[in-house]
Amino acid sequence: MDQFDFDVAILGGGSGGYAAARTVAGAGLRTAVIEGGEEVGGLCILRGCMPTKALLYAAEVKHLAEQAGNWGVRVDKVGFNFAQVQARKNAMVKDFADFRRQQLMDGRFKFYRAQAAFRDPHTLALSQGGTITARHFVVATGSRVAPLPLPGLRETGFLTSDTALDLTRLPQSLIVMGGGAIACEFAQFFARFDVKVKLVQRSGHILREFDTDAGIELEKVLRREGVEIYAGTRITSVRREGGLKTVSFEHQGETVSVSAEEILFALGRVPNTASLDLAKAGVVTEQGRVMTNEKMQTSAPHIYAVGDCAGPYEIVHLAVQQGELAGRNIAGSGAARGMDYRLLISVVFTEPQVAFVGLTEKAAVARGVPFVAAGYPFNDHGKSLIMEAKDGFVKLIASPTDGEILGGACVGPVAGELIHEIVVAMAKRMTVQELAALPHYHPTLAEIWTYPAEELADKIRPGLITPS
Question: N or C: the chain end with fewer CB closer than 10 Å?
Fold first, then answer.
């Protein structure tokens, strides 16, 4: 008789946890999934990708209607019903969450609705009472909104990226604290629904994980749409003043104060691991993040971790890849595999969208990787001119010796879709010469990639260039 209740117990039923569960169950292992969240579905479905993108697309439709005159289309007055916007988003989220719940309860796994904490390396105590044991574990508990680092913020009151999704009415004015993807997406969403938005960012430019040129381009558009941006700040205090909320910060050598009806705290998320008692299982963490090797194993080799609680990137498709890889490694199907982040993709769903794959120029410099780069603007491209989508550019980064594509960036219309052409090229280790030679239909947005590819293909010959 087996000494364990299950072969594998998975903590968390979100995207990473479900990917691990279906993989190990498909290999015939006895599997348990423990989900302790108030709702079933995981961050992507409930509070991340799906609801935010539904709202952003509604804002884009409104914005396009307001710009209809550019194409000779007359729209006398564009209005909106925010309750209907929210109702459509909620209905979509419910459909996605219901489907995930069905998947978790279809009999492939034993599904527990409970909080769990380790009692020892092979035992979990459940909040509903009792314990379960397992030979292997996968920690996939995701992330939560980061703790409040600012004096007065809790007392003043604020929205988070979670609670902002549940608003029943729009504030008249809003201060967005942060300059990452979440902050920028929400700033544009609220601004396009007629909220006066001020964005306060610590770094010198928004989207600091991207190259500076991408952040500058998006800043230009956000400012054009009425968002006030304060970059390179140090926030000193948050307080109530009458009926408004006020944020004070140092900016360009001066103390500046801005006020609004509401504050959105968008300074990131942290791993959701505090309640798991991971130390009792011998699992090492750093500031809550579960440390893993490339095989997704923790310091306790029978325990794996995937998704936002492990990192190193908080991106849902990577959580799925990590979950599947951990599941295959647990099941022992072939030689143990490791994660490869060479094809790292990141997308921000503002308009213009911002996306990159592989190396940015900033990352290449930091790692000492020789490269050459070339770009091309959308304001000189046929299809984007037809669409009045003139903001942004594409950029390719390549090896100066053989032309292999090392990275690509796109700021522009449907950048999140266009970047996948470079993902495919990099997956096959194509060169800029090969990309330039591929036929592209005209007029399409995708053919814009051929211009930087051709420029680099002409340059990358022995002795012609000096790498960056």
Answer: N
Mean pLDDT, residues 76-91 taken together: 93
Q: Which of 122, 302, 317, 442 is catalytic?
A: 442
Range of the domain at 50: 6-144+270-331
What CATH number did the domain enclosing 443 receive? Answer: 3.30.390.30
Res. 105 pLDDT band, cuts 50 70 90: confident
pLDDT at 1: 38
| pTM for the predicted model, two decimal places | 0.92
Question: Which residues face 238 on adjacent strands?
Answer: 247
Check whether 224 has a pLDDT greater than 70.
yes
In a domain, 61, yes or no: yes
> Is 177 exposed, middle or buried, given 0-12, 13-18 or 19+ CB atoms closer than 10 A?
buried
The total number of structural domains that make up the chain: 3
Same domain, 13 and 138: yes
CB 143 within 8 A of CB 44: no
Active-site residue 442, yes or no? yes
Q: Please tell me whether residues 178 and 241 are part of one structural domain.
A: yes
Q: What are phi and psi of 196, to 5 degrees?
A: -80, 115
The residues, ordered by sequence, that sit 6+ positions from 456 with a Cβ below 8 Å of its Cβ are: 372, 373, 374, 396, 398, 403, 432
* Nearest by Cα to 132 from 8, 283, 302: 8
CA–CA gap between residue 214 and residue 220 (Å, rounded): 10
Same domain, 65 and 192: no
Q: Which residue has the tokens 């504050």?
A: 263
Q: What's the mean pLDDT in 40-48?
A: 75
- Per-residue exposure over 333-368, b if at least 16 CB sit within 10 Å of its own CB, e if not: eeeeeebeeeebbbbbbbbbbbbbbbbbbebbeeee
* Helix axes 82-104 and 15-26, enclosed angle (nearest 10): 20
Q: What is the CATH number of the domain that holds 205?
A: 3.50.50.60
What does the pLDDT read at residue 464? Answer: 53
CB 142 within 8 A of CB 301: no
